[in-house]
Amino acid sequence: MSVAGRAGTSGVPLSKNIPAGSRTRMSKLLEFWEFHEMRAAVIIFALLIAALVLKVVQVAGRVEQLAGSPAVVTDDQQLGPAVARLNEQFRQQWQAENVQVGDTVADLTVLRRLSLAMFGTVPSLEDIRAFEHDEQPNRIDRWIVKMLQDSRFSDYFAERLARSLVGVEDGPFIVFRRDRMTAWLAAQLRKDVSWSQMTKELIAAEGLWTDRPAANFITVARMEDESLNVNKLAGRTVRTFLGQRIDCAQCHDHPFDPTWKQADFEGLAAFYCQASLSPGGVTDYETGKDQQEVVYKVVDPGAETGRVVPSAVPFHPEWLPADGGLRYRLAGWVTHKDNRRFERATANRVWGFMLGKPLHEPVDDLPHPVDGETDALDILGQEFRARGDRLSVLIRMIAMSDVFRLSSESSADNADTYTKQVQAWAVFPLVRLRPEQVIGSLFQAGHVRSIDQNSNPFVRVAKFGNENDFLNEYGDMGDEELLQQVGTIPQALLRMNGRFTAEQSKVDALSAPAQILNFSPDNAAVIDNCYLACLCRFPAVDERAYFLNLLESTTEAAAEKRKANPEPPAAGPKLKTTRTRAQVVEDLVWTLYNSPEFSWNH
Question: Residues of the chain with pLDDT > 70: what percent?
Fold first, then answer.
């Protein structure tokens, strides 16, 4: 029988024939199922969204092995003779100035310096243990090449280069994408592209700032009237690529350096006068036969009309390419093979990145090169040029040098002697860690495994969020990063009392303190692993003895002693402690985080 027949021929709904009590129960049952079906649908939808987000993060985190990465040390990259030449230059200087040279440090100290310079963090406990088990010859040199291949290097070095190129400000809205430029720099470093090629692309960049990221070097100079600040571009070009400050010459002759005249600055700025922004991105105004020539005009104080300033370089105009647009010609002049300023400026900046302090300070105010004289910057620059002006060559030369492996400890008995050692690079410079190195080291020391693009997405998200919060509170030196600055009381208090330091010290879940405590074979190993994770060294004898005594006086140790000897001694002091092993380890790690040794490169 059909449902309609059961309901009756009059078409009365079936529910009409059901008693009122039954209808109420059925209604509640239907409401119950509808509610839980909706709830289940919401949960399933949320799970699908979470899975999609996780997949996107995982895909975004994958690192492609780009062609051109320095996979092996080829014959043309063997730098032994070049490094020997650099070392001899310093030895002659030390001998001539009669300065006492510091001792050579242990390999673990060199590893820490390399990691801070190339990754922006202390090495992970995972990397330290792998380094210790590497017993093959030339361990340090091979690890330098290995670190150059790591995405952590390209990402971190790209950020540092971006600071010198465009600063740290957000820049003009929409037309400036700092993140795109940094990603482009990282890709160039992974491919080991020459610095001269990158420089040319930056100065002569055309196209949209999104799909032609080098164009952001130009768009960062956009002004409110949508024109480009050619003075800013000229000043940044000379400071970044030639290592000299001529900004004040835009208004008058340089007051301290008679070499730079106002006309020199204006002539360089004129090379950017054709650059403009359009819906298609950065382009140059065309100056063909049927179009009006684009010229650069400067309005002097008190003048009603501007005077035309032709594009001109302050020295060696023969280095300018004969053909091409103005910016293309300027890029060719800046990177010309005979332009010592270009190679010296690059060497000085990379030296500063590696040792925390440039050979000459400030990093962008070098003295003029003198014909017939050769110093350490010239040697670095010449070898850099001879090997395709790749930044990886400079990094390897500096890291393999004697100076990079000297101790920061001095036996000098007075301040003058120590100052003389520092100025001669006879000891490694003591340099306060940069803010992002502090937070990066805190986060890495709190995890046993290396934190990189292949890490758990949740770990990477936590790192990103915590870094931003920490830097906002700790402060950022901006593009003046290589100027030596003293620490502040708020910075010290943030490390001591801040939420992040406390979280990274906890014996919690998968944190480094928890894994060290759970998997170290004994108390001595616990202490060793804590010191390695935080300071990249083993504890001294007295340090180990102190913390070993604390670990052997915990509640767990007391319980084991009572179990082994249930009857307490009739006389003598009773062992009283309320601290657990976890609390001792947390205190140990917190102490190491707040030690001066942690926050300095040494």
Answer: 75
- Indicate the DSSP class of residue 338: T
Phi, psi (rounded to 5 degrees) for 11? 75, 15
Tell me: do 442 and 316 sit in the same domain. Answer: no
pLDDT tens-digit readout, 291-346: 456 777 877 777 777 788 899 999 999 999 999 999 999 999 999 999 999 999 99
**pTM attached to this predicted model:** 0.83
Other Cβ atoms within 10 Å of 84 Cβ, number: 13
Find, among 202, 209, 208, 262, the residue nearest to 231 by Cα.
262
Q: Pull the structure tokens for residue 584.
A: 């001792």
- Please tell me the distance from the alpha carbon of residue 429 to that of residue 347, in angstroms, as a whole number: 17
Rounded Cα distance between 352 and 481, Å, is 10
Q: Rounded to the nearest 5°, which phi and psi values hold at 243?
A: 70, 35
Please state, in angstroms and rounded to a whole number, the distance separating the CA atoms of residues 387 and 179. 30
CB atoms inside a 10 Å sphere around CB 477: 14
Instruction: Tell me, letter by letter, the H, E, C secondary structure of 262-275.
Output: HHHHHHHHHHHCCE
Q: What does the DSSP assignment read for 119-130?
A: TSSPPPHHHHHH
CA distances from 524 to 349, 547, 549, 584, 592 (A): 42, 9, 10, 13, 16
* Same domain membership, residue 442 and residue 299: no
* The three-state (H, E, C) secondary structure of 192-221, written as one string: CCCHHHHHHHHHCCCECCCCCHHHHHHHCC
Asked whether residue 339 is domain-assigned, the answer is no
Dihedral sign from CA coordinates of 249, 255, 256, 262: positive
Chain position carrying tokens 């106002």? 262
Is residue 127 pLDDT above 80, yes or no? yes
**In this structure, which amino acid lies at residue 222?**
R
Name residue 284's beta-bridge partners: 275
Indicate the burial class of 228 (C-beta count within 10 angstroms; 0-12, 13-18, 19 or more).
buried
Q: Mark whether 453 and 593 lie in a shared domain.
A: yes
Give the CA distances from residue 361 to residues 171, 244, 344, in Å, rounded to whole numbers and listed in that order: 27, 11, 13
Domain boundary among 28, 61, 94: 61
CA distances from 165 to 203, 221, 411, 429 (A): 10, 11, 40, 26
Query: Smallest Cα–Cα separation from 474: which of 438, 518, 527?
Result: 438
Residue 250 carries which side chain, given as an amino acid letter?
Q
- Segment 496-516 shows an average pLDDT of 85
To 10 degrees, what angle do helices 391-400 and 139-148 make?
A: 150
Q: Which of 133, 90, 141, 84 is nearest to 111 (CA)?
A: 141
Question: Using an 8 Å Cβ cutoff, are 516 and 577 in contact?
Answer: no
The domain of 487 spans 431-566+574-601
What SS3 class is residue 384?
Answer: helix
CA 167-598-354 angle, 5° bins: 45
Sort 320 into a burial class: Cβ within 10 Å, 0-12 / 13-18 / 19+: middle
Adjacent-strand bridge partners of 432: 600
Q: Are 268 and 250 in contact (CB under 8 A)?
A: no
Across 333-362, b (16+ Cβ under 10 Å) vs e yields bbbbeebbbbbbbbbbbbbbbbbbbbbbee
Instruction: Identify the sign of the CA torsion 198, 201, 204, 206.
Output: negative
Domain count, the chain: 3
